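User: tokens in, sequence out, please.
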């Protein structure tokens, strides 16, 4: 039976944040799923979801640094209604993406040994983010 819910994450400021445990704590239905897919979709345009290194926190710092180099705030952005990090955040969100899908096997996310779920927050100030979580058996 398919399942869907919307979860609200803790507030995070700019950076790449490991949220695997937080997501699993809010979606206990994963543990009841023998075989399926967990699809996560973030309902915002200035953050993104990614799967990446879950062990060394320096990877998250490096990702933030690299994205700042690829999409610098110093460009002549036109859309700055919510501040200088407005359009730059939208651009980074488009590059990384708003959704991920992860296999579920025997009630667990079938991630690689060193993989975890990231919320990539591109706004400097803390924001509360919502994610639509869908389990497809």
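Assistant: Sequence out:
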């Amino acid at each position: 039976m398919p399942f869907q819910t919307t979860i609200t994450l803790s507030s995070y400021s700019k950076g790449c944040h490991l949220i695997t445990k937080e997501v699993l704590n809010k979606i206990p239905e994963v543990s009841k799923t023998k075989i399926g897919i967990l699809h996560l979709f973030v309902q915002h345009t200035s953050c993104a979801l990614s799967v990446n290194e879950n062990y060394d926190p320096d990877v998250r710092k490096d990702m933030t640094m690299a994205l700042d180099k690829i999409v610098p705030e110093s460009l002549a952005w036109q859309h700055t209604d919510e501040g200088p990090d407005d359009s730059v955040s939208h651009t980074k969100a488009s590059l990384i993406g708003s959704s991920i899908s992860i296999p579920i096997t025997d009630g667990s996310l079938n991630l690689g040994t060193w993989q975890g779920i990231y919320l990539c927050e591109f706004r400097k100030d803390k924001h509360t983010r919502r994610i639509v979580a869908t389990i497809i058996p």
